[in-house]
Amino acid sequence: MTTDVTNVQNAFQMLIRIAVRAPLMMICSMVMCFLINRSLSLIFLGGLCFLAVIVAVITRLTTRIFRRVFDQYDGLNASVQENVTAIRVVKAYVREKYENKKFGKAAELLYRLSVKAEGILALNNPAMMLVVYACIIAVSWFGAHYIVLGTMSTGDITSLFSYIMSVMMSLMMLSMIFVMITMSTASVRRISEVLREQPELHDPDSPVKEVADGSIDFDHVTFAYRQGKGEETLTDLDLHIRSGETIGVIGGTGCGKSSLVNLISRLYDVSSGSVRVGGRDVREYDMEALREQVSVVLQKNVLFSGTILDNLRWGNPGATEEECREACRAACADEFIEKFPEGYHTWIERGGTNVSGGQKQRLCIARALLKKPKVLILDDSTSAVDTATDAKIRSALRTVIPGTTKIIIAQRISSVQDADRILVLEGGRINGFDTHENLLKTNVIYRDIYESQTRGGGDFDMPA
Question: What is the mean pLDDT of residues 327-348?
């Protein structure tokens, strides 16, 4: 996209300098040529028509190729970004040669397409010179004939050539514009595709600006991702959570845990049914107001370049340093922050590459706590911390935000067993929803998970 914007910018800069001057000079010169001798001017006019056909053909051919060139640029940039992001995996699997070869093939294809496009575009100048000089020769031949007949003077033919040179200079300037426009046409189309994209989610005409409480209700909710195969991720969920409850969510990979909580903050809209927060359908809320009160710590935690305090204040820009420290104590992040020489002013590299996975998770939990939300969602957000720290965080959450509804998604039974109720998902459906003790007695899947983890001490994937 950067290349596309640069192409359009360069074309526009050239247009505003030349687009008015060159056509105006060419039109005025052609008018003067017609006033001097209409017959000779028709020669040049015919040449211009022939040139227009050539330009149209070149434009048609090169625009298609340039579109492929810019698409290939995207692929090349994606390959570089992927290799940089996954450099540890590449090195761990000793795949440097493979990635170099893959990049080389992409670069070679880009080179061939670029050469092909530029080769066709290079025909523009020879074609223009051919037409211009052919017209000059024709005008010279017939002009000499008119001079011999006495219908034109030598001064007229000299003036005619002066105006013809002005036309030629105009054409040269227009050819430069033509080259830039041809390159930018494909870029304009690609940019337009992005700008024409409409958001799938919209605020209602008269949105609700305040979330009353943290109660959550799923009324016969069915959900499927639009970009997928249309298969239902969640099917006929009927779920009611009281404000201030702590709810554990457990289930195998792909059972819809993350999809479930994404509907609460309205990152997606349901396919059917309704999701209510604070007694109102989430589609009735102003999305910004809703998300201010629904704080989510995602599976893939993200930190931004800046100090630890800068990152914490993403949750609350007006938070004092003491409030940040309190949030970090609740998230057990103060333990490692205070070991840094610069403490809370320690610089976090882009993507949080200079802190561990567990440290990153705890900072993100602290950031979410600073929002003081009515609903807090932890989407497998303590997977990288040890069980003792996990227990401390859960204990602190009960103390620090007792009135906040807490939804904890986890793979470990120990992370959710002290929740008020636990939701067991299987294949996008509710398999069980009760306390830890009752589920052990009545729910086969939950009991199997519990026994496998207490016996093996590990995480789980849904048993067959």
Answer: 91
Topology of the domain covering 2-195:
ABC transporter transmembrane region fold (1.20.1560)
In tens, the pLDDT along 357-402 reads 888 989 999 999 998 899 999 988 888 888 888 889 989 988 888 8
Structure tokens belonging to residue 41: 């001017």
For residue 460, pLDDT over 60 is answered with: no
CB atoms within 10 A of CB 381: 27
pLDDT in tens, 108-166: 888 898 898 888 878 877 887 888 788 888 888 888 888 888 888 888 888 888 887 78
Give the DSSP H or E segment for 221: strand 216-223
Nearest 5°: the CA angle 316, 365, 248 is: 125
Residue 185 and residue 10 in contact, taking contact as beta carbons nearer than 8 Å: no
CATH architecture of 216-456: 3-Layer(aba) Sandwich (3.40)
Task: Decide the pairing of beta strands 234-241 and 306-307.
Answer: unpaired
Label residue 311 exposed, middle or buried (CB < 10 Å: 0-12, 13-18, 19+).
buried
Contact 243, 294 (CB under 8 A): no
